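It would be a great kindness if you could assist me with a short task in structural biology. I am sending you one protein, given as its amino acid sequence and as whole-number tokens for its backbone shapes. I would ask you to consider whether the tokens describe a fold that such a sequence might reasonably adopt. The full record is reproduced below for your convenience.
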Amino acid sequence: MERGKMAELESLETAAEHERILREIESTDTACIGPTLRSVYDGEEHGRFMEKLEARIRNHDREIEKMCNFHYQGFVDSITELLKVRGEAQKLKNQVTDTNRKLQNEGKELIIAMEELKQCRLQQRNISATVDKLTLCLPVLEMYSKLREQMKSKRHYPALKTLEHLEHTYLPQVSHYRFCKIMVDNIPKLREEIKEVSMSDLKDFLESIRKHSDKIGETAMKQAQQQRNLDNIVSQHPRISGGKKSKKEVCASSDLEVKNTSPMSEQDSGILDVEDEDEDEEVPGAQDLVDFSPVYRCLHIYSVLGARETFENYYRKQRRKQARLVLQPPSNMHETLDGYRKYFNQIVGFFVVEDHILHTTQGLVNRAYIDELWEMALSKTIAALRTHSSYCSDPSLVLDLKNLIVLFADTLQGYGFPVNQLFDMLLEIQDQYSETLLKKWSGVFRNILDSDNYSPIPVTNEEVYKKIVGQFPFQDAELEKQPFPKKFPFSEFVPKVYNQIKEFIYACLKFSEDLHLSSTEVDDMIRKSTNLLLTRTLSNCLQNVIKRKNVGLTELVQIIINTTHLEKSCKFLEEFITNITNVLPETVHTTKLYGTTTFKDARHAAEEEIYTNLNQKIDQFLQLADYDWMAMEPGSKASDYLVDLIGFLRSTFAVFTHLPGKVAQTACMSACKHLSTSLMQLLLEAEVRQLTLGALQQFNLDVEECEQFARSGPVPGFQGDTLQLAFIDLRQLLDLFIQWDWSTYLADYGQPTCKYLRVNPTTALILLEKMRDTSRKNNVFAQFRKNERDKQKLIDTVAKQLRSLINSHHS
């Protein structure tokens, strides 16, 4: 049963499927029926489907037949109408044939016209093609004409650009023409011509820039000076300045710029001449002087031609040669400041140009090349300055040179060049500047000392008094209380020398300006130079004055007084330096002034000269001594020469009242000792072979006069009979002979309490021998007198004992 049901179900499904396919065939377009039929053949019941299809066909045939039977009368009527139309169609055919014949006859003329039209069209096409070819050729010819015109007018970079366009853009389009081949062959020659002409322009530019480096450098240094002045103004008025550009910024913005920096510039203007402007007018920038377009054009031309490296090497080589020429100083550069200025201007002009080339071209010069040139320039410049500055003997010229070097260094530093070595060299020049200052001040001091009257300065009114006190730091309450007229203790050279020392310090300070030194360094430099001025220059001048042959005691006394006051003023010089450098003297490593030592040494030299001078004067008086060594009786008073000598000493020591106590006392003691020694030598000299007791007594009167002078206290400050001790040797010797106290001398000799302790046996023997010779020759009959014989024996006995003392002393 179940199988029967399943078969029945399958049969129903197959029938439904066949019905669907038949409907699809009826409703589907014939071109798309293939898939439907394929599904029938894919199935297994196509036999049954064919049966169904035939049954459907028969069904449709029956329907068609029914329909035809229904419309048959209409079909008959249609056939009748069709037969009638056939006749009309034959007539139409005949008419068409006739019309065609007529049309053929008429078309022959049209064909001829069409052939003519065809020829015209062909000519028109040929003309159009010719116009197109000419349109391609004309730009080439125009570009070539433009090229020749640019070459003629020396616009070489545009000509090169035109040549490039012609070669790569226009000529390839018409390369098959013969004139184009000629142009192509001529292009390398044109390139070479452009290359040579542009190089010629560059050579002219290099020659011009070499000649005008002086003017370019002068302009750059003027701008640097203006900027420095502006910086000084801004630093003095910080509230006004909102900000300050660096020198590099200023130089970059205001310095070398080019009027026509484009390589397409139409003209090569080279170097322009600029008239000198007044100081009030604005200084022209170097961009007003230089046109760098020849360099740019040549660089671009060589770059386009693929020879940039050749151009760079040539440019650098030529500029190196020019640098060596610029760095060669003229032989007479040291004679004037203008010589140095021109030398610096040329160097600055050279490097200003190179710096501009560095910043406006890409790779023509590089920083390594610039640094190499600068190192060479720096070494040669420093060597030249060392050589030529050594010839300068004028401190004003050295100072001006220093200011010029500072401006030179600041200018190049503004362009980024290192200038530390220049400032180091300036410190060397500072030593030379100090030497030239010392030489100049040596003359100044000599003039002051030579023209001084070596007398205290008289003042008659308050105005003069204040003027001198304003020039020299001097305070004396007692002098201020004195009425006018009155006198300062020192002479005019004191305030003059003091003010000249201050002027020297100012001159040293001027050199230290703008050297970028610290206050301590400036202070140290000033103090060292001032010490040289004091210890060497001023000291030598004072020593020369003191050692002069014609210098008098009054002058020497005044020099001692003057140097004493100058020594006291040294602390004010210390304060003066401290005030201008703002470096306290207590600061570590601060150099102290040696003025005190200088003036002490000068004073000591003057004191020694006083002692020497006094001794010389004493010697001159002693040369007037005229003793009668054979006189039997002494005179009634001291010798005239000695009285005059004592009078001279009294008047001289009266002048010593302003001297320090020790100086006057030493001078007095030295004079008395020298007088005592000289008198002793006078008594013992070999030329005096004989002397009498009367001559010895006269000599004793002179010694008593000296002792009286010593007791009178010519110089205050001596204690007791200190000054008389200068004559103690003479006194004891004369007392021994006049009193003839040989027994005491011989008995007490060698004891500390001996009355004649200062009498030397040798001295006594010499004098005794002279008196013995006198006794022998005084009277030929003396030997017959008992007293004379006894005295002679006594002399012989004393002489023998003295020789014994001398021998025992030597043994």
Notes: The chain has a mean pLDDT of 79. Residues 46-152 form the longest helix (107 residues). DSSP finds 27 helices and two strands in the chain.
